[in-house]
Amino acid sequence: MAEMFSTLGTWNWLIFGFVLMALELLAPGVFLFWLGLAALLVGLLSFVFTPSWQTQLLMFAVFAVAAVPAWQHFARSTPEASKSNPFLNRRNEALIGREFTLEKPIIDGTGTVRIDDTIWRVAGPDMPAGSRVKVVRADGASLTVAMA
Question: CA-based angle 111:116:120, to the nearest 5?
Answer without folding.
Answer: 25
